[in-house]
Specification:
heterodimer; A: alpha/beta; 5-stranded parallel β-sheet; B: mainly alpha; 10 helices; 78% helix; cell inner membrane (chain B); MetI-like_sf (chain B); Molybdenum transport system permease (chain B)
C-alpha cells in the first residue's frame, strides 16, 4: 500500500474525518473546494497535527496518535507541490531548486531540468516567472529533494488553459517514469479521470 | 564655516561610540523580544508588550531615574554586575550607552516585530517539507526575508541613541569626554553666553546624522516591502 490513512482533525468549528488506502501510482483526492483536501495534505506533510489517527506512506508510519509517533516535517521525505507554489521570493530559481537537494545520491539535476523544461530559467527570480513556469519550478523543487512520495495540490490552479495540457503530461511522466506514489488533489473530474489509478472522494 | 574643533570631534566620536555600542548590545534583546511578541502566544504577553514600550511613553528623566535605582553600585543588581562582570555604569560612557539602548529598545522591537510579522509563514512550512529543520529555516528563509526590517530597526535605534538626552543626563550625568554626547554638549554650550557658533555646528551635526539615519531606514523598509511584494506567483 502506498497510502494508508485514517485520521481526524479539527479545522475551526468543523471536524474532518479521512480514511482510505491506495496502491501505487497516482491517487486523486477528488471533491469540491472547502472539503478539507488541503488540510489532509498538510497533515500528511506534518504541517498540521491531526487530533488522532494514523498516517502510513509506503510502509513508513509518519504519524500514529496511539503509538505517539509524529515524524517531524523535515524528516518525512515528502515532496509537496503547494497550490500557492511558495517559491522563495528572495532567491533565484536555481537556489530554489537546490534548496532541498541532497548533497549526493539525489535525483539527477540535468535530467530533472530537462524533464520539466526549466533549464533556461535558472537565473530568473520567481517573481518574473509566468504561471506555467512557476508551476514547473515548484514541481522541480519538490522532485529535486528526492522525496519518497509526492503531494500535489491543484497543480493546474495557477496555470492558464493553454498550458494545462503541458502540466498534465508532465504529471503523467512523473507518475510513469519516476514511479513515485502521488497524492493529487483536484476538483476537476476530467483531470482526475485522466490521471488517477485510484480516486478517493472527499 | 570653521572645521570642527578637537573638543567637538571628541563629542562626535563619543556619540557614535555610545550609539553604536547601544544598538549592538540592544540588538539581540530587541530581536528576542520582537520574536516573542510576533510568534508566541502566552499569558502575560500584553504585560511584556507594555513594559517594552514604557521608555517610549515615560518621561525620559523617569527612565533615567529607574536605571539609577537598578544599576547604581548601591543597588543589589548594580552591585552584582560590578562584582561578577566588573561592569559599572554610573558616570561612565557605558552608562550613556545603557541609557541610550534602553530608550531605543521600543523603537527597535516595533520595527523588528513588524518585519517578522510580515514574513509569510507558508514559506517557512515549504522549507520544512524540503528537509530544513527550524534553525535552517530561520537562517535561510525567515532571516533574509526580515533582514531589511531588522537593519531599518538598527538604523532607527542608532538615531534614537545618538539623540538621547533625558535618561542619559539623569543616569550617566554630563561629563565631557565620558558621557557628553551631542545633545548633552549642545545643552552645555547653550549655558555658556557667546557660544552660539558652537551650538549651530553641533546642532547641524545632529540634524545631519538624524536625517541620514531616517533616509536610510525608510529606504530599507521600502526595499523590504518591494521584495515581499514580488513573491506572488
Amino acid at each position: 500500500m502506498s497510502f494508508d490513512i485514517a485520521l481526524s482533525l479539527r479545522r475551526g468549528e468543523r471536524s474532518l474525518e479521512y480514511a482510505f488506502t491506495a496502491g501505487s501510482g497516482l491517487t486523486a483526492l477528488f471533491g469540491p473546494s472547502g472539503a478539507g483536501k488541503t488540510s489532509l495534505l498538510d497533515a500528511i506533510a506534518g504541517l498540521l497535527r491531526p487530533d488522532k489517527g494514523r498516517i502510513t506512506v509506503g510502509g513508513t508510519t509518519l504519524f500514529d496518535s496511539a503509538a505517539h509517533i509524529d515524524v517531524k516535517p523535515q524528516k518525512r521525505h515528502c515532496g509537496y507541490v503547494f497550490q500557492d507554489l511558495r517559491l522563495f521570493p528572495h532567491i533565484s530559481v536555481r537556489r530554489n531548486l537546490a534548496f532541498g537537494r541532497k548533497a549526493y545520491g539525489g535525483l539527477d539535476w540535468d535530467h530533472t531540468l530537462d524533464l520539466l523544461g526549466i533549464g533556461g530559467l535558472l537565473e530568473r527570480m520567481p517573481a518574473t516567472l509566468s504561471g506555467g513556469e512557476a508551476q514547473r519550478v515548484a514541481i522541480g523543487r519538490a522532485l529535486l529533494s528526492t522525496p519518497d512520495f509526492l503531494l500535489m495540490d491543484e497543480p493546474l490552479a495557477s496555470v492558464d488553459a493553454a498550458r494545462r495540457d503541458e502540466i498534465l503530461r508532465l504529471v503523467e511522466r512523473i507518475r510513469d517514469e519516476m514511479r513515485l506514489p502521488i497524492l493529487y488533489v483536484s476538483h476537476d473530474r476530467a483531470e482526475v479521470e485522466r490521471l488517477a489509478q485510484t480516486i478517493v472522494p472527499v | 564655516m570653521q572645521p570642527l574643533s578637537p573638543a567637538e570631534w571628541e563629542v562626535l566620536v563619543l556619540s557614535l561610540k555610545v550609539g553604536g555600542v547601544a544598538i549592538v548590545a540592544t540588538l539581540p534583546v530587541a530581536f528576542g523580544l520582537a520574536w516573542m511578541l510576533a510568534r508566541w502566544r502566552f499569558p502575560g504577553k500584553v504585560l511584556i508588550d507594555a513594559v517594552v514600550h514604557l521608555p517610549l511613553v515615560l518621561p525620559p528623566v523617569v527612565t533615567g531615574w529607574l536605571l539609577l535605582l537598578a544599576f547604581s553600585p548601591n543597588a543589589p543588581f548594580g552591585a552584582f554586575l560590578e562584582r561578577t562582570l566588573g561592569l559599572t555604569f554610573l558616570f561612565r560612557w557605558t552608562g550613556a550607552a545603557l541609557a541610550a539602548g534602553v530608550m531605543a529598545l521600543p523603537l527597535m522591537v516595533r520595527a523588528m516585530r513588524l518585519s517578522l510579522e510580515g514574513v509569510d509563514r507558508r514559506l517557512e512550512s515549504a522549507a520544512r517539507t524540503l528537509g530544513a529543520g527550524p534553525w535552517r529555516t530561520f537562517i535561510r528563509v525567515t532571516l533574509p526575508l526580515s533582514a531589511n526590517g531588522v537593519l531599518a530597526a538598527l538604523v532607527l535605534g542608532f538615531a534614537r541613541s545618538v539623540g538621547e538626552f533625558g535618561a542619559t543626563i539623569t543616569f550617566a550625568s554630563n561629563i565631557p569626554g565620558e558621557t557628553q554626547t551631542l545633545p548633552l554638549a549642545i545643552y552645555s554650550a547653550l549655558q555658556i553666553p557667546g557660544s552660539d557658533s558652537q551650538v549651530v555646528r553641533l546642532a547641524g551635526l545632529s540634524v545631519l546624522l538624524s536625517v541620514a539615519a531616517l533616509v536610510l531606514s525608510e529606504w530599507l523598509i521600502r526595499r523590504s516591502g518591494q521584495q515581499r511584494g514580488r513573491h506572488v506567483i
